[in-house]
Amino acid sequence: MNTYMYKFKCEKWYGFKEGLRNIHAENNTDEIDVEELARNDAKSFANSGNCEVALLQKFFVTVKPVKNYAALASIPFTVNNNESINN
After folding, report:
1. Residue at 84 is within a domain
2. Which of the 8 DSSP states describes residue 82?
3. Which domain holds residue 18?
4. What DSSP line would sit under 10-77, residue for residue?
5. Which one, of 19, 14, 59, 60, lies nearest residue 42 by Cα?
6. What pLDDT, in 10s, does the model give residues 40-51?
7. What is the pLDDT of residues 1-53, one digit of tens each?
8. Dihedral sign, CA of 40, 46, 47, 52?
9. Backbone angles phi, psi at 42, to 5 degrees
């Protein structure tokens, strides 16, 4: 999985809202699509219809389990489709 840092500047009725955010995308996602994901994320975050974004940095992310908690044992190994897990 890749994580992208991007900066955004979105129009608001009182001026602009701008800042930095991160988004996650699958490894095979084209950067044009990543930019569109970032634009949609910025629009949603800023509650704005018009945002400019610029990709800043790309990170490759891996997840490594560090600690298991007792509640993990309560999750069954298999669950049938459309079946909920009871607590």
Report:
1. no
2. T
3. 2-74
4. EEETTEEEEEEEEEEE-TT--HHHHHHHHHHHHHHHHT-S-EEEEEEEEEE---------GGGGGS-S
5. 19
6. 999 999 999 999
7. 899 999 999 999 999 999 999 999 998 999 999 999 999 999 999 999 999 99
8. negative
9. -65, -40
